[in-house]
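Write out the 3D structure for:
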Amino acid sequence: MNKVLLVSLGCPKNLVDSEIITGVLMDNDYKMTVDVKNADTVIINTCSFIQPAVEEAIDTILKYAKLKREGVFKKLVVAGCLVERYKEDIINQIEEVDACLGIKAIKDVASLLKEDTFCEYGNDYSIDFLNLPRTISKDKAFAYLKIGDGCDNSCTYCTIPSIRGKMQSRKIEEIVKEAINLEQNGMKELILVAQDVTAYGLDLYEKYALTDLIKNIIKNTDKIWIRLLYCYPESTTEELIDLMANEKRFLSYIDIPLQHGSDKILRLMNRKGTNEEYVDLIKRIREKVPELIIRTTFITGFPGESEEDVEILEKFISLIQFDRVGIFTYCLEEGTPATKLPNRVNEEVMVQRKEKLMLLQQDISLKKNSDRLGITCDILIEDVAADGIFYIGRSYGEAPDIDGVVYVTTRQPLSIGDIVKVTIVNVEQYDLIGEAINEFTQ
C-alpha cells in the first residue's frame, strides 16, 4: 500500500500543507500518483473555512468513499480543516474513512498510513511541521511560502481561530532557508502567506517583523520576486510601505481584505479599522508606491447590513478605485459570534447586492487596466495558450489563481519560468495583452 493519491482542496495555505504531506510521504518511500485507479490510498486535504468549502469537502469525501466501496483503492484518509471542525461527524457518519489527520500532525502522516485499524492523529499546536520537506510542482515558476499559521484577530464571521488556533510565526532563519531552497529549485516568485501576514513576528519577536523577514529573504536570495497575500490594514506599517517603494523585488502589489466600507458593519465584524482610516492608509501607500496594484475583498449581507450600509460601501469602492475586488455573500458559520447577531439578510438580497457591486467594479477594473496601456513590464511566463498563439504570464500586478493574466505574443520560443519584457497593447476587464518588445515593439 505505497501508492498515494493526494486531493488538495481550499486555499494556497492548504496547498502548502498538501505539498508537505507529499514531501513527508516521498521521504518515507511512498509513491505519489494522479490516477485513483493506481492508488492504494487516497488522502483528501480539506478546507472548511466557509460553508461552500465544507460542502465541497464532503462531496469529495463521498465521491472517493464510493470508489473505495467499489474496490478501486483500499484506504481513505481525511486531513485538514474539516477534521478540526467535524472529526466526530466524519468518524461516525462516513464508515469508509479509515483515518483522520489533524492539521499540525502532518509530520505523522507516514506513520498513520501504516496502521491497520482506524486511527487519528490530532492537533499538537506546533507549527514545526512547516519546516518539513515539500514537494513543489515542476510545471510552475512560483511557490507559496507559509510564514505562520493561526490567527488572533477574532473577526466575528471567521472560523480560522477555532480551526488553526492562535497566530504562530515561524523563525526568520527557517523561512529564509526555505526561500533559498525554493529559488535553487527554479522558483521565480515567492508568495508569502499566512492568515495575517502583517501580524508576522508579534508572538516571536514582540513586534511587527514582516519587514525584517522580507529584507532577510532579499539579502539571501538572488533574483526571486516577493509578493504578499492577506495583509491586515491596521498592521500595514510605514516601514513595510517604504520597503515596497524602494525594493524592486518586493512587488508593488498588496492584497488587503477590508471586508466592508461601513463603520457600523466593520464594528459588528470586529474589524479594527474604519472607513476613514482605510482611505487614509491607501492614500499614503499610493503616494509612496504610485504603480501599486491593490486587491481587496468585501462581504455583502452581513447581519445588520442595511441599504444605507451598501450605499456607503458602493461610494467607498468608487472613491478608492481598487484594481482587484472579490465580493462574497455572507456565510453563517456555526460556532462564530456572528451567528448570534440579529437582523439577518435574505440570501436573495445578498446576491443582488453582490451583483450590483460587481458591476460597479467591472467598469473600474477595465479603467484600471486601460491605465496600463503602453507600459513595459517584466512578465513571468507560466503557460502556453490552448491555441498555441499566445504565451500566458503574469506581471507584478497579477497574483496567480485569483487575478487575470497577461497574454504575450512573441516569435521566440519561451519556457515556463522565463521573464520577458512586454509592452501592454490591449486590455480586457481582467486580462492584458502584450507584445515582447524585442519582437514587435521598439
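The chain is about 35% helix and 20% strand.
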